[in-house]
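Exercise 7.
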Amino acid sequence: MQQEFWKDKRVFITGSAGFLGCWLSNNLADAGAKITGLDIEIKQGSNFHNFDLKNKINQLNVDITNYDLLTKTFKEHEPEIVFHLAAQPLVTEANKNPLPTFENNIRGTWNVLESARNSNINGIIVASSDKAYGIPEKLPYDENHKLHGVYPYDVSKSVKDLISQAYHKTFGLPVGITRCGNFFGGGDLYFDRIVPGTIKSFIFNESPIIRSDGKFIRDYIYIKDVVDAYTTLAENINKVKGHAFNFSTEIPLDVLTIVNKIASLMNSNIQPTILNQVKAEIREQHLTSKKAREMLGWQAKYDLDSALKETIEWYKEHFNGK
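Solution. The predicted structure, written as tokens, is:
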């Protein structure tokens, strides 16, 4: 992170109290940025409290689907850089209840982009996903792969991504788009995700639940590397505006490998429960970050073992009430 770039910079972060939002807010606040966070929920036990963000940022209760309130907030606070992270983040929830997913991920995005278009911003970083690519024509995905999500969550990300591109191409909005795989790290409180769910299970001497057959392949990227990716893109937005970037460790792993790795690090012999019940999800997805290396000089810094060790320690402290 370029500390001097962020000193006194006026920054908006939608989804500021979420998993990534908390880590990003904390790092930018420590770098001297003046942050306004927009969110509608602060979870008990989240890093919002652990990082003491209530005393570091200006946190506002703003729903991004409320266009009038969002526009008013932009006008009052005049952000220079915007990170649009707010979304319904769960694939399983999208499959159960697609309408709130479309409302938050699609309507919320055009509201943020339109508010930004009518403001004097220097850059807006929009969180897309590897899910935006849909069923792979080839792997690893590169940024030229078509965006053709099939299932509800994937479609919401494809549309979000395309709307963001349209705002750059039509209005010149200085947009940068991130496409990452699965985040993990301390502070993710959605325990149906494989990393936090597995760690929690082992802490309580329970069998971790695998919804699939254990052989689905994904990218897994540590939250600190994700924060570095987002800030690096923002710092370079003038020369790469309009571009989308994959951010990945480029080491695809199946679910059983992740579970077994966590078991080894936690000295657990408990075997997972394999449900093999996954529907409406793509079997194999992973990314190349060649473009990010060449244009941004970015690459992941954390290896899987060290990242998982830090993550495990966070959850041990979390469940010990610290």
